[in-house]
Amino acid sequence: MINEKYNIGKTLTGLGLVSGGLDSLIACHIMQLQGINVIGLNFISPFCQYNRESTNVECNLDLFKEKLGIKIYYLPLGEDFLELIRNPKFGYGKHLNPCIDCRIYILKKAKEFMKRIKANLIFTGEVLNQRPKSQHLRALRIVEKEAGLEGRLLRPLSALQLKPTIYEEQGLIDRKLLLGIKGRGRKIQMEIARTHGLLDNYYACGGCLLTDENFTNRMNDYLKFHKKPKIEDINFLKVGRHFRYKNTKIIVGRNEFENNKLLTLKKPSDLIFEAKGVPGPITLVQEDYNKNSLKFAASLTLRYSDFNQLKGQVIYGTDYNNLTKEMTIEIENDKILKKFLL
Predict the structure, then answer these.
(1) In this predicted model, what pLDDT tens digit does every residue of 16-33 receive, in sequence order?
(2) Which of 169, 210, 269, 295 is 20 to 30 A removed from 106 (C-alpha atoms)?
(3) Do 16 and 108 have their domain in common?
(4) Is 221 contained in some domain?
(5) Nearest CA to 99 among 46, 143, 146, 147?
(6) Count of domains for the chain
(7) 22 near 190, Cβ under 8 Å?
(8) Longest distance between any two alpha carbons in the chain, whole Å
């Protein structure tokens, strides 16, 4: 109907940035109600706390296909994003979260992708004043300008609180069919979701690890010791207890799941430690290790195992199925061990 009203010769294609959350779902729905052909773009981030094996359907991107018939494209964050974290132009939030720079980065990538698929416009599920760092009015304007999308970034959920985009001014988008939501509540979004059979209940997603104090301690340590950081290395930071003994990085699994995960992530040069004869953790030793750091790693391995004496044995090597080296070690007291805990 919108196309007929404004006599548009063809259906417009809108590229929507989708996280899998409620806001982006409703934004896509609103755009479809305008007669827009919606395509979703999701950025794969190692900093997302959402576990894709979870039954939390609110964070399930399959929902976009099932309920709205939307095709989703996926783009991974690159190493350049890690450099952005190291030195963000617009600073951090409470911890290591460069929210404004992150939005600019993502929108620049989306702008390039929009050309590839020949979409006509970009829209997001952002809500004015929902997030303190990146969604207040000044931040929204900075993001648009820095991403080269000034006046061309549509935010359907808060459009009536913002200046009209060029698409509204040209009559390509009916402003009366957009929303004017602001703030942290999601009552209106949930109402729309239930009315249109998109979602029965709302469950918040896990958020970004860069807002987590413990994780950011590890991330800061990683950036300090790596001049050329790699996205794949971030997976190590999400598993186990982390220790920095001088220049050596040591990771100790906390349970069977983490032990298996560490073995999966292990690099060929990493050493594996395991307590001999008793259940316990898998310990990975990385980077610049020496005799003293290996002794410390062995002591950690015994400390977090079921071993109940002050002195015991650990086995280690680079091949988990062939740990041929052995060390007898005394367990350090907890005060010394925690001194090196990240």
Answers:
(1) 999 888 899 999 999 999
(2) 169
(3) yes
(4) no
(5) 143
(6) 2
(7) yes
(8) 82
